[in-house]
Amino acid sequence: MYEKEILITKEMVDAFGQATNDYNPIHYDEEFAKQTKFGGTIIHGMLTAGLISASLVDHYGPGVIYTDQTLHFKAPVRIGDTAKIIFVDEELFPKNRVKLTVHIYVGEVKVLEGLAFIIRGE
């Protein structure tokens, strides 16, 4: 099992929006976002998912490659939250292939769960 915590900052959200050209007001406009079911701004779901990638490199080292990923978004993440990324090797395959379960929590709340397949770098 591997765990890593990452503080979510406004700079991260701004950089992600710029990189992807995703300027949905749910991520940037507090007045707009207050009118939604979330009651305020939330970060991009794919930014949350992207936290997994850096964690994989931290754990497995350079050269790790995603081959497949399923994601289930369970709850919103907000600027100022600390996301805890957890993944567990579930099955090892030939040629450095690994199946893992992935979970991200904010506090006690699971915000994302999924399954990943990777190839470990050599």
Helix/strand layout:
Elements: E1 2-7, H1 10-20, H2 25-28, H3 30-34, H4 45-60, E2 65-73, E3 82-93, E4 97-106, E5 109-119
Antiparallel strand pairs: 1-3, 2-5, 3-4, 4-5
CATH superfamily of the domain at 2-8 and 42-119: Hotdog Thioesterase
Low-confidence stretches: none
Sheet with most strands: strand arrangement: 1-3-4-5-2
Structural category is alpha+beta
Element-level helix/strand string: EHHHHEEEE
**Rg calculated over all Cα atoms:** 15 Å
Q: What CATH architecture of the domain at 2-8 and 42-119 do you see?
A: Roll
Task: Give a description of the structure.
This protein is α+β, with helices and mostly antiparallel strands. The protein has a domain at 2-8 and 42-119: Hotdog Thioesterase (Thiol Ester Dehydrase, Chain A). The protein contains 4 helices and 5 strands. A 5-stranded antiparallel sheet has the order 1-3-4-5-2, with helices on one face. A hairpin with a 3-residue loop joins strand 3 and strand 4 (97-106). It is elongated and about 50 Å long. The chain starts with a strand and ends with a strand. The model has no long low-confidence stretch (mean pLDDT 96).
